[in-house]
Model the fold of this input.
Amino acid sequence: MNNSQMKEGLTFDDVLLIPQKSDIDSRKDINLSVNLHPQIKLKIPIVSSPMDTVTESEMAIAIARQGGLGIIHRFCSIEYQVKEVERVKRAENYFIENPICVNPEITLEKLLEISSDYNFQTFLVVDEKKKLIGLISKRDYFLEENLKKKIKYLMTPFEKLVVSYKKISLKEAKEIFKKYKIEKIPIIDKNRKVKGLVSLRDFQYSLNKKAARDKKGRLLVGATIGVRGDYLERAEELVKADVDVLCLDIAHGHLNKSLKVIREIKRKFNNIPLIAGNVATLEGARDLKRAGADIIKVGIGPGSACTTRIVTGAGVPQLTAIMMAKKGVGDNTPIIADGGCKNSGDIVKALAIGASVVMLGSLLAGTDESPGEIFNFKGKRVKMFRGMSSKEAYRNKIRITNDSPEYEPISEGINYGFIEYKGSVKEVLINLEKGIRSGFSYCGAKNLKELWKKAKFIKITDSGYKESQPHSVNFLD
Ligand code: XMP
Done:
């Protein structure tokens, strides 16, 4: 290697987008939707990071409702991860095919346990032959103090229920909800066997046209796997739980082992889209694509809680990494720009250089929907945030999954980070979306394809960077 071969690598703060003549009158005229795959259509180009302080079911539900996608982390047991996926898939439906049914002999205490497990308050009650004998909702048990009482004494019995003997659409259900002032319609066959359930809440949810859904009206969700240990069993269980996209997520994705795993996963689950990463080079992206990955995840070392570049000396500044990956895979294989976005401006830059969506960690952490408790630190309300290659995250995984710690890898992430509490992630996403729309408008682009074509970058100096920051004024926020 000699210095003449040394390439220049640029990242977000090294460049700006050059403003261009635009015929866009309103930010509303900009279409931010993106098809990551025929089964993965998003309305905003944002995916949440599979970190244990960012994405579990609550985050995935909230982001899908805003039109993005959440990827559930794998730093937990298979059962836990699968349950989180199921929670997302059960959060909204056009028609609930497999409603959760309970036995009339269980106590109210047990019902409350099931209720908190699934985050639902209404359940169908069936006998041992799966015949519908009642329905139990909050109205039936809210005021009951005796937790040992069996639910058969609390439920609304079959005779008092409004049911349908054929499958009905939400539109048809609306009239029945209105007429009988009810919230649930069990669907049964002539032997009273449960065939489904239609819920008023789902009707209300269906009015949100922005949500990222599958064809059954359920919210989209992804989940990660690794390349060692239980990855295959994990993938199988996630697919059984109807996960929409698998994400092979390892720190250094350009490994023979990952290419092998990509081929194996695509052979076994051909119809499930596969994201694979992380890479930061043309060759890396191209090899993952050739092995069968549908979507390539790019980013070695740009993450906010990441110390890879410091510990190993390896990495590529993120804008250059995205640009090189794009050269490796072309326009038809989407790229997820993973890590390093500090604001909506960085998101626009990542998209403009060739990404289809960005993956966000710290920007979405510290919200109501990110896992973990709010606590006080030096007078500020904060939530925990840590790198997933940190020693702490690794030890926690070993503790939870009972994996045998063959060797403890070198830590490549922050152990005890925290993010100031930000409130609801919906607000965060709405603000990011506004910024992204404005960014498209400055580039004169009505959609992502136009942005790719029209965007022009200018490299800036330290003085240009300083000028870009607020300066010469004191402010309070
Ligand atoms: P941001 O900047 O959005 O980045 O917080 C999120 C991304 O950071 C990556 N990540 C790590 N990278 N060591 C790393 O090298 C780590 O411990 C670590 N934890 C997260 C990851 O790609 C995530 O999506």
About this structure: The pocket of xanthosine-5'-monophosphate is lined by residues 49, 51, 251, 278, 299, 301, 303-306, 308, 338-341, 359-363, 387-390, 412-413 (CB under 6 Å). The first helix runs from residue 57 to 65.
